[in-house]
Amino acid sequence: MSNRLFQNRRDAGRVLAGLLDGYRDRPGVVVLALPRGGVPVAYEIAMSLDAPLDVFLVRKLGVPGREELAMGAIAGGGAVVVNEDIAGALDIPAETMRAAARREAHELLRHERIYREGRQPPELTGKTVVLVDDGLATGASMRAAIHALRGFEPAAIVVAVPAAPESTLEDLEFLVDEVVCATTPSPFLSVGRSYWDFTQATDEEVRDLLRAASRTRTGPHGTRAMSDVAAVRAEALSTEDGVPGDDALFTLVGDARVVLIGEASHGTHEFYAARARMTRRLIEEKGFRAVAAEADWPDAYRVNRYVRGHGEDGSAEEALRGFVRFPAWMWRNAVMLDFAGWLRGHNDGLPEEDRAGFYGIDLYGLHRSMHEVIAYLERVDPAAAARARERYACFDHQDGDEGRAYGFAAGFGAGESCEREVVDQLVDLRRHALEYARRDGILAEDELFYAQRNARVVAAAEEYYRTMFRGPVSSWNLRDRHMAETLEALAAHLGRRGGPAKIVVWAHNSHVGDARVTEAGTRGEVTLGQLARERFAGECRLIGFTTYTGTVTAADDWDGPAGRKRVRPGLPESIEELHHEVGGKEFLVSFAVAPEAARALRKARLERAIGVIYRPRTERQSHYFRCRVSEQFDAVIHIDETRAVEPLERTARWEEGEVPETYPFTV
Fold first, then answer.
1. Is the CATH number of domain 232-288+502-650 3.40.1660.10?
2. 3-class DSSP assignment, residue 664
3. β-bridge mates for residue 130, sequence order
4. What does the pLDDT look like over 83-111, one tens digit per residue?
5. Which residue ranges does the record assign to the Phosphoribosyltransferase domain (predicted)?
6. Do the bridges between strand 605-608 and strand 624-627 make them parallel or antiparallel, or are there none, so unpaired?
């Protein structure tokens, strides 16, 4: 698994700037960089904090003949720090150390003149100094800098680095007031392993950044640089119930043929309603022909048959009855009922090939998909149905369980694995595909595609449940890769008779957003949004939602009853809090046309994700992760206060809502 979190040093600086946001607006903050590598990192921090930027030079004292190995360091002011472990192990003579210090002191003064270009160093006495490097290994250079800084009598010293081993950070914590580090890889191999691009910074780059910092720290009239809140406020676009106007929506979508629209929870009315209205506009005006939802394939296909005028269901409510597995409210809710009814009406009278459909791309429907494969084969090839029934009998000992018990037994060797059987069935169905498809034209092709994807769901679900006990990353990645594969297959199927098919995807933010700029990405997770960007390069858009507070439909535990729960206000340093401070009930930020907002939201911040379970008592641990929002999505819609989506089966528990934590008191 890769530990590469940062694209380059500037990117690392933006991440650190978010972690140091508490120093914004504090008087007397100075940012000092250890050149050369620390300067690009420190530049982003200084710009974010609106603080002066300068260099604080430290030169490594290399072991003679092995200069890459530091036996010590010398900093501005002549302070020398000796690496006692190295010096002792190699029996370095004191005179050798002094000679190296004299040579490097000369180089240190020369570089100070090159970098400062006549500018005076900042006043450090009584200041809060943020000391920045591009990473630490042994920390010898940083310790030398800290030792030298003490001579200037600053009020506080804060060390800020993108990456370092925990042992080095622990040593530094005794020397300074605060240590801020974005990541501590284990095992720690080198600083460069945390970067995709670790090209050495040049003297020219250092000079350019120092010049730019001196020019741009304040505006042309001496005013402070625009705050992040002000940047978002200035470029936010109005929405109505979370829906942008047509001009803003169509500009955002452009010529994309895959538009992924997220949700910050699986139980918020406004997210569902706004997403449905945007999808209607894209179907009506932009030729989109399908919704691909984070729903089980067979259950969603029942809705697909209804909205396209097929199947036996006489109403949208009947078509939604396939959603019985927890969490049923995700798709059996009032918004989905209205949308399915609208889509049926929209399709009525249109040619078969122009009707828009509704499809599921998730993999949880193991037993239902097995049943649908057999039912299809019973109609077209009874002998093949018998073979399928025999193969799927492998799962009979887990009948009634959706796969977890099977996965536990097969994964740990305590039960039979059905891997060979499900793969054989998938191959068998594909082998006879052409024969089956020749029967009844378009409808036969659709039903064959439905059966093939059901067989693929069984294969993917079998593997998913078998791997879920090996660790969360393996099963998460398998699931999102399956969704991406299904999306690609659907696009190919729908586009087989004309131009490229245009599809709207409905899924949670955690699937829609690009994992590469999130905390999850550092653990090796991939997401549907990331894979869509890779597979539909330039032709997809990712849209996320946020909310500050309100209510949500969610359970306390998996398979538990749905309740209407209060959503706590967004945490400090979160994107939800920043959006709340922007003011207004709702807005859209489309980053392609909002460069200052994109810059502001490129900093690493907390982001909330509520799934089908909401545990407010462990809010930070259970529901927040760090990310860079303007790179995670192409646009974000914020609705400050939202309400719970209404399940079609509204239980007494849901109607009553959540008992306030202060009950029976009123405060």
1. yes
2. coil
3. 31, 158
4. 777 788 888 888 888 888 888 888 787 88
5. 78-181
6. antiparallel
